[in-house]
Structure formats: C-alpha cells, structure tokens
C-alpha cells in the first residue's frame, strides 16, 4: 500500500536502518488488520496500534486506508472491526477448502477416539489462535471457541510452538509478553518455562495442567509447515474430574500422529 509512511516511521528508519521497529508498510498493514479483526471488536485505535506494535499516527492512517478499501469497517465512533472484503476472503479460504476438510476430518477422528474436545491452533504474533474446535460428548465443556486467542505459555499447543522457537526469539517473546498468569498453576518464571519446553522437545508433546483454565488438563503435539517449522498444534482437552492424567498421557501417540498428518496443510 503506497503512501502510508509517516514522519514517525522515517525517524525510526533513520535510527534503525529499516522502515521501523514494526516492519515495512506491508507488515504494518497486515498486523493492524489482524489486530482490528481480533475477537471482541470493535477495537479502539490505541488498542489496535498497541497490539500490532505500530505507532498511533501510522496506525490511524493505515486503518483509514483499510476502511476505504473495505478490509475493515469503522463503527463511526472510533472503533474498528472486520469489513466486507476480509469477511468474504475468510469465507473463500475456508468454504469447501480441501485442506480445511482434511484437517477437520483428522480432528474429528481424534475426538472420537479420545471422547474429548480437540483443538487445532496456530501462532498469531505472540499469541495462540484456535482455528478449529471439535467438541467432545461430555456435558461439561471449556470456554474456548474458534477465533479465541490465548497466551502461548499457558496452553499445550502454545508450549509446542515455544519449544520450536530459536532461543533468541523465545527470549524476545518472554520479555515482550511478561508471562502473565492465567491461573495459580501458570508457568510465569522464565527458567521454569525453559525447563518445561526442554521436556516438550524431548517427549514430542506438551502437557498443560490447569495452567490456562482451572479444571482443564490438555495434551498437545506440534503441527509443522512444509519446511518443518512449528506453526501451531493439536490438543485434546479433558475435564480433570472426568479423566486422569494417566489416561491423558496414554493418548500421546495418537495426538502426535494426528499432528503429523496435518503437516503442510497450512503452508
């Protein structure tokens, strides 16, 4: 998108030797689009800019451009959300998509085999976003939904993602997020988290013990793209008073094989 650089960006470029700390014009536009379309919209300018890591002056100009071309919509009082073009694009990507059908079929098989809820999620920035949820038969269900974002360090899928990161990128993410607690069981100490991630790499799967939601225990395995990079994962979520940890661990092979079957479906 031409014409969206500001003096704020130019000053950053002079200091850092690149367009800005937020990336080039395309990076900024896409990050802002993602932030504005996050669940809970409409979102205010300041919140969108902060989530995308883009200076407010630049963010305002880019958001106005995205509204003008239909990718975002303004509520008329300073709030932004997804526009008709991004909704249409989302429908085109998912409706009847062979990859989406193959992914859902694998997850439905896993849900039937374990008789519990299954999630597929990917890393989006410094968070995890659920792409697919196949609810299990239990009358008690967790609060997750498709499109919901969760911290990486408190979820089984997120731990799989973190375990696949280079050490310098992991360090940046830990510093950026601050590892906030979701429950009293959340890993908030960087050293403890690194020790846990070492176990994830060794086992090939991650366990989450009521770290994101009390009463929920999960097992997850990493999903990779065609290059072998971990981009997300698959998890089985259980209610702690209905399934034991031993039962959960017994599903490690089937969870890993499901995750392996999804390799390359998302790029």
In sequence order, what are the helices and strands, one letter per element? HHEHHEEHHEEEHHHEEEHH
Q: Please list the strands of the largest sheet in the order they lie side by side.
A: 6-5-4-9-8-7
Distance between the termini: 24 Å
CATH superfamily of the largest domain: GAF domain
Structural overview:
Strands 6-5-4-9-8-7 form a six-stranded antiparallel β-sheet, with helices on both faces. With 267 residues, it is an alpha+beta fold. The radius of gyration is 20 Å and the shape is globular. α2 (25-36) packs across α4 (56-68) and α6 (98-114) runs antiparallel to α11 (252-261). The longest helix is centred in the middle third of the chain and has 17 residues, at 98-114. The chain has helices spanning 7-16, 25-36, 45-52, 56-68, 84-94, 98-114, 156-163, 167-177, 190-203, 245-249, 252-261, and strands spanning 43-44, 72-74, 79-82, 117-124, 127-134, 149-151, 206-209, 216-224, 230-239. The chain folds into two domains: 7-88, Arc Repressor Mutant, subunit A, CATH 1.10.10.10; 96-261, GAF domain (Beta-Lactamase), CATH 3.30.450.
